[in-house]
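Bumping my old thread because nobody answered last time. Still need a sequence for this structure:
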C-alpha cells in the first residue's frame, strides 16, 4: 500500500512534526495483531487505546453493524427513538453495578465525563440544593478533553493552554506514593487516608456547596495509578456522610479490564453515576454512556420543573450502528466469559510485568487486572524522551505499547494468551536494553 499525503491531518495528542518524519500507519487488524503499511504484524499490547477488549475484527460485531447500516442508518433520539436504543440500554442495565439502571448515551469518554458532571449539577438543583455546584476531581486524573473533563482532570498540559476552566473546582491528591508503594503488586497497601482530604475540602467550602466527586477507579492515562487498599471505600463513605455524589469514570476500567464487569464490582464500591465508553462497542463504533442510579433518575422524573427533564444530549446519542455494535459486543463478552478472563490471566500477567524490575531504567512497576504500568527514569532535561524512544523501538520490533510521560502503560485485549504476554515483556526488555 502506498503512503498517503500526510499534509492535512492534524493528529490528536501526537508530536505531529516527529510523526511525519517517521510515520506509523496501521492498515488492518485481527484478534491480537495489527498489520502495518509494510505488511508487518504488530502485537497489540494496548487494545488499540484501552478499548478493543474482545480483540480486533470480531465477526459478530462487524456483521451486526453492517446489517444495521443496511436496515436504518440513523434515527434521532430526541422526541422519538428506535428499538435498539432501548434494547441496548436494558442489556447494559443488566450488567451495571448496584442500582445504576438508567443509561444516557454519549459518543465518547469525554462526553461521558462532561455528561456525568452536568447530570450531577442538574440533579442537585432539581432536588432543591441549588447551592451544591462545586466539583471535586483529583490530581493526575484524566477525564477526557471537554471543558468539564479538563477542569476536574489533573494533568497540567491538558489544562494550561485553555484559559479559564470551570470555576468552583478542587482536586484531591493523587494516590500514587512512589516511596511507600514502589513495585506494588496489585492493590497498594498504603494511602487509604488520602481520601480524607475530602474532609478538609468540606471543612473549607461546606458540604452545602459540593455537588460531586469524580475519580477513575484506576487512573490509566496518567500511568496506571492503582488506588490504595480501602481508599475508594473511604471516599464512598465520606460522600455519603456529606451528601455528595460519587462519580466513577470507568472509561478504561469498564468491560472486564480488571476481571469484573466494572471497577465498581471489582472494588465492591458503587458510585452514584458511572461513565463508560471504549469497550462498550469494542471500539468498533464510537460510543459512550453514563449510568445513573434509579434514585437520581427518579428525582428528575418526579420533580423536574420543565417537560424536558434534562436539557442535554447529542445528535448521535444512541446511534443505531453503535447500539447494534454494543449489543453484539455484550454477547461476545458473555459468550467468551471475557469479564472473567483478566482474573484467569492476572497472576501470570503480574509476574511477567514485574519481571521487568531488573531491566534498565525501570524505577517502578504497577499492575491490576490486565493493566500494567512500567515507570522509567526520565532523561535529565528531557521528560518523555526515553519512553518515546522505547515506544519507537517496540514498534520497530512488532509491538504496540502506549506511553504516557515516561511510563509505559499496557492494557492488552482480554483474549490474550501467555505467549503474547511473554512476547510483550521480552520485546520491552530488549527495547529498554537498547535505549541509551
Ligand atoms: N475518561 C477516561 C478515564 C479515559 O481514560 C479517557 C480516554 N482515555 C476518557 C475519559 C476520554 O475518552 P475519549 O477519548 O473517548 O473522549
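Sorry it took so long. Here it is:
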Amino acid at each position: 500500500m502506498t503512503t498517503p499525503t500526510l499534509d492535512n491531518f492534524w493528529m490528536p495528542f501526537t508530536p505531529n512534526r516527529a510523526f511525519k518524519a517517521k510515520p506509523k500507519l496501521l492498515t488492518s487488524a485481527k484478534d491480537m495483531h495489527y498489520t502495518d503499511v509494510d505488511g508487518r504484524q504488530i502485537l497489540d499490547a494496548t487494545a488499540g487505546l484501552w478499548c478493543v477488549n474482545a480483540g480486533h475484527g470480531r465477526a459478530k460485531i462487524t456483521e451486526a453493524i453492517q446489517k444495521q447500516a443496511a436496515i436504518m442508518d440513523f434515527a434521532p433520539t430526541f422526541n422519538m427513538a428506535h428499538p435498539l436504543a432501548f434494547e441496548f440500554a436494558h442489556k447494559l442495565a443488566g450488567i451495571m453495578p448496584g442500582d445504576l439502571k438508567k443509561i444516557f448515551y454519549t459518543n465518547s469518554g469525554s462526553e461521558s465525563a462532561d455528561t456525568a458532571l452536568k447530570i450531577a449539577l442538574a440533579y442537585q438543583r432539581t432536588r432543591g440544593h441549588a447551592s451544591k455546584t462545586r466539583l471535586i476531581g483529583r490530581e493526575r486524573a484524566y477525564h477526557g478533553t471537554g471543558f468539564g473533563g479538563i477542569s476536574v482532570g489533573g494533568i497540567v498540559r491538558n489544562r494550561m493552554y485553555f484559559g479559564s476552566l470551570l470555576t468552583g473546582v478542587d482536586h484531591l491528591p493523587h494516590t500514587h506514593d512512589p516511596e511507600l508503594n514502589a513495585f506494588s503488586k496489585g492493590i497498594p497497601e498504603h494511602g487509604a487516608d488520602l481520601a480524607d482530604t475530602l474532609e478538609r475540602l468540606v471543612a473549607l467550602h461546606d458540604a452545602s456547596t459540593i455537588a460531586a466527586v469524580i475519580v477513575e477507579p484506576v487512573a490509566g492515562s496518567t500511568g496506571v495509578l492503582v488506588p490504595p487498599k480501602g481508599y475508594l471505600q473511604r471516599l464512598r463513605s465520606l460522600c455519603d456522610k456529606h451528601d455528595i455524589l460519587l462519580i466513577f469514570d470507568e472509561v478504561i476500567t469498564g468491560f472486564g479490564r480488571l476481571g469484573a464487569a466494572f471497577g465498581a464490582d471489582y472494588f465492591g464500591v458503587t458510585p452514584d453515576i458511572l461513565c463508560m465508553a471504549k469497550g462498550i462497542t469494542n471500539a468498533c463504533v464510537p460510543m459512550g454512556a453514563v449510568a445513573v442510579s434509579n434514585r437520581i433518575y427518579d428525582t428528575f422524573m418526579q420533580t423536574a420543573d420543565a417537560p424536558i427533564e434534562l436539557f442535554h444530549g447529542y445528535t448521535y446519542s444512541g446511534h443505531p450502528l453503535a447500539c447494534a455494535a454494543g449489543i453484539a459486543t455484550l454477547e461476545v463478552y458473555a459468550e467468551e466469559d471475557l469479564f472473567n478472563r483478566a482474573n484467569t490471566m492476572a497472576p501470570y500477567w503480574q509476574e511477567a510485568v514485574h519481571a521487568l524490575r531488573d531491566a534498565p531504567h525501570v524505577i517502578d512497576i504497577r499492575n491490576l487486572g490486565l493493566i500494567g504500568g512500567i515507570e522509567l527514569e526520565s532523561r535529565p532535561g528531557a521528560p518523555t524522551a526515553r519512553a518515546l524512544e522505547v515506544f519507537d523501538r517496540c514498534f520497530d520490533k512488532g509491538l504496540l505499547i502506549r506511553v504516557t510521560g515516561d511510563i509505559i502503560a499496557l492494557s492488552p485485549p482480554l483474549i490474550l494468551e501467555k505467549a503474547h504476554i511473554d512476547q510483550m515483556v521480552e520485546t520491552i526488555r530488549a527495547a529498554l536494553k537498547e535505549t541509551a
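The mean pLDDT is 97. Let me know if any region looks off to you.
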